[in-house]
Structure prediction request, 739 residues.
Amino acid sequence: MAENEGSMGTSMHGVTGREQTFAFSVAASPSAPTDSTMAKFALPVDSEHRATTFKVFSFAKPHMRTFHLAWISFFTCFISTFAAAPLVPIIRDNLDLKQADIGNAGVASVSGSILSRLVMGAVCDLIGARYGTAFLLLLSAPTVFCMSFVADAQGYLAVRFMIGFALATFVSCQYWTTIMFNGKIIGLVNGCAGGWGDMGGGVTQLLMPLAFQLIQLAGATPFTAWRIAFFIPGWFHVIMGILVLTLGQDLPDGNLAALQKSGEVSKDKFSKVFRHAVTNYRTWIFFLLYGFSMGIELTINNVISGYFYDRFNLKIHTAGTIAASFGMANFFARPFGGYASDKAARLFGMRGRLWTLWFFQTLGAAFCIWLGRADSLPIAILAMILFSLGTQAACGATFGVVPFVSRRSLGLISGLTGAGGNFGSGLTQLVFFSSSRFSTATGLSLMGATAVICTIPVAFLHFPQWGSMFLPPSKDPVKSTEEYYYMKEWSEDEKTKGLHEGSVKFAENSRSERGKRVGNVVLSAPTPPNSTPVHV
Amino acid sequence: MAATGLLLGLILVLGCFSEIGVALISFSSLQTTLVVTATHPQRLLRAGEDKITVRWGLNQSLPAGTDSAYKTIKVQLCYAPISQVDRAWRKTEDHLSKDKTCQFKIVKRPYTTGNQTLEWTIERDVPTATYFVRAYALDANDHEVAYGQNTDAKKTTNLFEIQAISGRHVSLDIASVCFSVFSIVSLMGFFFVEKRKGRKAQQ
Prediction:
């Protein structure tokens, strides 16, 4: 393919971080997209063709269609992963389970995706989010249908473990929306996609018992009816997988394989992507942080219904309704966290985003402490609602920052963060809710206290070009540019080959993270993020 | 947001009130005035197929008039201690409204003097466990006033085991395999068709 041959001067790009960076991609070939192609999209776009506005009720391709495919795929997987939880009273009788069997299956259901989220991160970077999502949906559908074969505790554990792999759609969902939407609104978009997907954990607590009742009414015995009920999430997987393959596309300009062949997007090497992900210390801070926002949220999905049932002697459907409302709060809480992150960025830049994250996560954890100590039902419900709002907003705010940690290894870092969430869930369930050393109430308070402490590392997230919670950005004229930070991931050799073009565009667009602060003096002239650059 | 919280709070408060109306009767306050026996063809029974013959009646050695308050008899299938280990949802509590020992109703009938017999086919939703049979005598307000069971006070004798149905069906297994195969085949199909289209476009 000849498109890139005419790109003279590519070896000079990104070195000083000052030159206009789009001339080469426009001059590459006569048929390459010019800026007039921005007009062919239904939504206004930036130079990377990412949408700069978010129209929730639209299904226009590619941006809004991607958004809806991404979040509904993730929602489907949340439904199937936690589908067993509300039916446990029936399942435990059918399979003769003991308390330990149920607890272990709960840990297994969130453990499988620790690994699959990492793999999905790499998959998205290498073959695109569309295939990643569709592969996972269609390959995990058989595991959901497998519930009809389960006959004992081991089988139950194995199937819940395998279904849990599907939670990796979180990574493909966030990655896919990050590719399609501009950095200024990415907090809100990621928050909506993530939050509405997480809602599946709440919806399943209402959907599965309803399906079970209807199937029983149709004449099945309870021990058969719950198995049939699992076909519903299974069908959702198949339907969504096919929709993603037929209606989705990887990037605003088309599909990854086609764009790689035409040379517009370069193929990357996994070893490089991996190295840049794991050597960036920010990745590991997010691994820890997310374990104590999403991690404790997943743990609560598994333990809260039983907690209310036992502590306050509620009826099982009442306890189930409370469990559902915890998960359903995700509908507005997580998007709100992302939106607050975006708003804070507009005023204070990246520092605003970091403070927003710290604030919500600490607040949520504090209410978790209160939940464990609440002695009366109304206070416990109030504490739980505030806890859910704080923690879920923190999840949204987390993914307002993660897209800026790296451009080259975005998928893998999203995957590692997501894996940290599941790891945190498995760990907290194991430490606080599996032994009889302390009651569930004490476990909740201790978990909240641990989360407060483990949120402090947000203060250590430092970006040389934007600063951190307490430190200002670097004064060095070279190091304080966005280009320097994102170009660090590419070697000179790779730059001469022009592999870094995506990062260049991203760096330009990420100047919005400087906020409105006066005194943020940098030697290169800042370019407003959305304007069409003048070609040199 | 606030509205949802309020609505939820209202539902829960109402739910609580509906439980307060239940009287706190304790099991230890009940007298053992009934004699219950249960016979079965073999020790291991199959749910949905085998039958248990249950006989109950007032203990004849008690003074007349003991059963003056009895209006209804409720016969239940109850878990033996061995089936309650590590299973808090089957726990025995003294307060009958919280007691989870007896979860399956065999029969509920108006009380008559003299012995009663019933041949009961084990329901298909009974789980695999070890059981005994207990009968409660209820008064006009549907409160327990006396009981009898076919085992001793420590619940160690005359226990029987029930084997539950698996809940699995061949038709369900086949449907499951069909849908799984469809899922994988459609994935492979799309993948190869797109790969072929990509190769054709390159040529």
